[in-house]
Amino acid sequence: MRRFVASLALVALAARPSAALTLAGTSVAPAGSSPVNKVIELLSVLARQLKDEAAADELQHSNFTEWFMNERNQTARVIRETSDKIESLNSAIASGEAFREGKTADLEKKAGEQANAEKELREVSMRRQKERQAFEENEAKLADAADSFERSLEVLAKKAPGTALLDSGASFGAGSASEGATAAPG
C-alpha cells in the first residue's frame, strides 16, 4: 500500500515538481484547479482513505486473531476435559466389566454347587426311599413272623398246657400273647 502511494507521488512529481510540496503538506502552488493539483489532492485523499482502511483492517485482524486464539484455547481445553472424561469412563467400564465377570463366575460356581446339592438330594432321597421300603418290608416280615410265633405259642399252649416253653413264651411276649389271644378267637 505504501508502495502504491509512493508510486502515485512519483507520477505526480514527474508531471509537476511543485506537487511535491503539496504532498508534503505545504501548498506552494496557488490553489488552482489544475489537473495535476486535482490528481495530487485525490491521491492525498486516497492515501488518507488507505490509512484509515489499513487501521480498520488491522483492528479487524487483531480482533479476529484474538477470537481465534480464544476459540483455539477453549477447544483445546474442551478436548482435554473430554479426553479425561473418556479415559475416566473407560476405566469405569473396565472395572464394571471386571466386576461383572467376577459376579458371573460366582454365579456359575453357585449354580454348580446348587446343581450338585440337588443331585445329592435326589440320590439321598432315592436311597432313603429304598431303605424305607426295605425297612417296611422287613417290618412287615417281622410283624408276620411275630404273629406266626404268637399263634404257634397259642397252639402249643392248647396242646401241651403247663410246659416250660409256654412259660418262657409268656414272659417273652406277655403283652403280645394277650393281644394275640384276643385276636385269635375272632
List the helices and strands and how they pair.
Layout: H1 2-15, H2 19-23, H3 35-159, H4 164-172, H5 174-183
Explain what you see.
The structure is a single chain. The protein is an all-alpha fold and 186 residues long. 88% of the residues lie in helices and 0% in strands. It has five helices and no strands. It has helices spanning 2-15, 19-23, 35-159, 164-172, 174-183. 4% of the residues are buried.
Q: Note the gap between the termini.
A: 145 Å
Specify the overall morphology.
rod-shaped
Q: Average pLDDT value? A: 80
Beta-strand residue percentage: under 5%
State the total count of DSSP E strands.
0
Uncertain segments of ≥5 residues (pLDDT<50)? 17-30, 171-186
Largest pleated sheet: none
Q: Can you count the helices?
A: 5
* Helix fraction bin: over 70%
Structural class: mainly alpha
List SSEs in N-to-C order: HHHHH
Taking all Cα atoms into account, the compactness measure Rg is 64 Å
